[in-house]
Amino acid sequence: MRMRRPRRVSAQVLAAQLAITTGVMVLATALFLAPLGSELDDAAMHRALSIAQTTAADPDIARGVLTTRPSPSGPVQSEAERIRRATDALYVVVMDARGVRWSHTTAAEIGRHVSTDPSAALSGREIRQIDDGTLGRSARAKVPLYDDDGRLVGAVSVGIAYDSVRERLLDAVPALLLCAGVALAAGALAAVAVSRRLRRRTHGLGFADISALLDEREAMLHGVREGVVAFDRQGRIRLANDEALRLLGLDATATGRALDEVLAPGRTTEVLAGRVDGTDLLTVSGGRVLVANRMPTRDGGAVATLRDRTELERLGRELDSTQGLLDALRAQDHEHANRLHTVLGLLELGRHDKAAEFVAEIASSRRSFAEEIAERVRDPLLSALLVGKAAIAAERGVTLALSDATRLDHRVVDARDLVTVLGNLIDNALDAVAERRRTDPAAGGPRVEVEVRAERATAVLRVSDTGPGVPPEARERIFVEGWSTKRPAPPLPGPVPFQRGRGLGLALVRRLAERYGGMARVTARAGGGAVFTVVLPEALASDATAGDGLPRRLMAAGEPQ
């Protein structure tokens, strides 16, 4: 039966670690035992050499070789045996210059020629070797034997039983294997611990599963139409998909860098960095309205998602404008109905002249205001916006007037931008005067004054109101997305799929002004209220302006509209 390979990453890593640990321990043991045998052999030969040198240094040995005959009971045999027993050597053999033994552990060998070649020792050299002799394999040493006058008279051969060396080696093996076993067990326990931790971190997946998940993640991240940005615990960008790079105006080099390094200070940076709490936070980046959410991860980082709500926001504002126009038409319908009833009554009473005079007066007042707007503001979209806002203001009991400095004879490059700016400023002004009238009924008549004028190719838009004004400490924060001085509206009943946040109008105004290279600011109005001023360079057409509706500076910069 064929064994199946483990599929989990933790099981595969455990098997690999155990195999590696076992292999390393076997290799280490073998590498340790190999030199150990050589060291023991060398130690045995060195011991044999020391015994041989000590024996050859005994003057009685050399004197006995010169003065006696080889005999089992001779002085040389007796002294050699004494030394052998004292040193636990295998043998101590003394030979004369002819190679004849004068001592041996076997008495019958005395007087016979040695079994191995003695020429090296008899020539005055010391040798060490492991060899086979009449007593078996031994570690032996041979040294020359000199008399008192320094003449070579023979040699001494000493052997150490090789079995004793092997026994010492074998005696060391169990202890060595025990140490190796303990080390292997410790390595196995460490491998099991690592495997369990890895199993928790990988959720029991296999390498193929992880590879497939990575491929699916890449396809999903770069395929979704929402921006995804991942941060590590230090706040560096760890991952950003294509949509996130597009929405934030970044490139691929932003990965691995801190968020504060790649994004300018502002609400977008604060939201992505987690310094602003909440869900579905609205922010503006590069003229785009984004909905951001941030979710922390277990490793201390976070993942932020970005949804582009620019088109929805634009549609919402268009719906607001349409709703305002509908309210204005509804108000005019009531007003016209009342006036028609008045005319009908005058006609029934026979007051035809009075009826004609009343109709002419109404038509003259309406036509005069519309004609005044059309004469001063030649752009049809802007003039239509002002006429519609005037009707809405009248319905809300607010006077909307043009300042004496209003004059716009130039052709507007992109009227949509000016409509966005002017519409937001007027809407905020109407809300402000309505808020003051609600909180201070004794205040004077609510009034909003609009000024639209041209300074060469620069459009200057100014809207003043008689509302409560903007405190000095809030004059910069009022242009930050998400910040508003308006009271929050009560929640609508039922599920709402998407609601536009508050505090975006003025933020869009400032961003649009900055894109034109201009500015937006708010100051105090004499007598109370606020004055909003927006300067848009190159917003008006001239002879050098391209006819496609974009200033050349913006076309060259490639900024989105």
UniProtKB/TrEMBL annotation:
Pfam family, one: HATPase_c
Keywords: ATP-binding, Cell membrane, Kinase, Membrane, Nucleotide-binding, Phosphoprotein, Transferase, Transmembrane, Transmembrane helix, Two-component regulatory system
Gene3D superfamilies tied to this protein: 1.10.287.130, Histidine kinase-like ATPase, C-terminal domain, PAS domain
GO cellular component, one term: plasma membrane
Keyword Cytoplasm (UniProt): no
Record-annotated membrane-spanning stretches: 172-194
Domain Histidine kinase residue range list: 335-540
Localization of this protein: Cell membrane
Membrane topology: Multi-pass membrane protein
The keyword Transmembrane appears for this protein: yes
EC number: 2.7.13.3
Catalysed reaction, written as an equation: ATP + protein L-histidine = ADP + protein N-phospho-L-histidine
GO MF annotations in UniProt: ATP binding; phosphorelay sensor kinase activity
Stated name of the protein: histidine kinase
Species: Streptomyces corynorhini
